[in-house]
Amino acid sequence: MSEKLDGTVLDCLFRTIEGRRGGDPNGSHTARLFAKGTAKIAQKVGEEAVEAIIEAMRGDNPALVAESSDLLYHLLVLWADRGVRPDDVWAKLKEREGISGIAEKAARREAKLAGK
Ligand SMILES: N=c1c2ncn([C@@H]3O[C@H](COP(=O)(O)OP(=O)(O)OP(=O)(O)O)[C@@H](O)[C@H]3O)c2ncn1[C@@H]1O[C@H](COP(=O)(O)O)[C@@H](O)[C@H]1O
């Protein structure tokens, strides 16, 4: 098991999720989420994020791994629901490669001060 997350596991899960669109809500958790709509899916993403934070603060790494998996799954369902493709996100991450978050934040502050 040496699959990388970009372009493999998450892309594969996204395809499975897309395949559940319009499916039977009684037989698929994903189809049930799609049927409930964006607000419910977004709420689930928030809940899973909070659960991941709680496990991190408790220092329970196996639980953090499980909650992180729940979070990523629900985030992918939210992307699918909103028409965002994983490639859009991978491209944005790629665009940011090599740009320090500190330098980026300073540039934003400069631009704001200059009224841009
Ligand atoms: N990765 C996941 C995954 N992670 C978490 N979950 C489900 O997400 C649910 C989260 O549980 P919760 O109690 O928080 O949510 P809930 O039951 O909706 O409760 P409420 O918030 O509505 O009260 C559980 O039922 C988990 O099984 C997932 N369900 C599906 N997948 C993947 O999606 C694929 C397709 O699944 P189906 O659409 O169910 O066929 C699966 O083969 C998996 O690969």
Computed over alpha carbons, the radius of gyration is 17 Å
User: Strand fraction band?
Assistant: under 5%
Q: What is the CATH superfamily of the domain at 5-84?
A: MazG-like
Query: Which class of the domain at 5-84 in CATH terms?
Result: Mainly Alpha
Work out the helix count.
6
Shape descriptor: globular
Query: What is the average of the pLDDT values?
Result: 92
SS content category: mainly alpha
Distance, first to last CA? 47 Å
Q: How would you describe what is shown here?
A:
Keywords: Amino-acid biosynthesis, ATP-binding, Cytoplasm, Histidine biosynthesis, Hydrolase, Nucleotide-binding. It catalyses: 1-(5-phospho-beta-D-ribosyl)-ATP + H2O = 1-(5-phospho-beta-D-ribosyl)-5'-AMP + diphosphate + H(+). It comes from Dongia rigui. Pathway: Amino-acid biosynthesis; L-histidine biosynthesis; L-histidine from 5-phospho-alpha-D-ribose 1-diphosphate: step 2/9. This protein is an all-alpha fold and 116 residues long. The protein has a domain at 5-84: MazG-like (Helix Hairpins, Orthogonal Bundle), CATH 1.10.287. The protein contains six helices and no strands. Helix 1 (5-19) crosses helix 4 and helix 3 (38-58) packs antiparallel against helix 4. The longest helix has 22 residues, at 61-82. The radius of gyration is 17 Å and the shape is globular. The termini are far apart. Mean pLDDT is 92; it is low at 1-5. Phosphoribosyl ATP is lined by residues 13, 16, 20, 28-31, 69-70, 73.
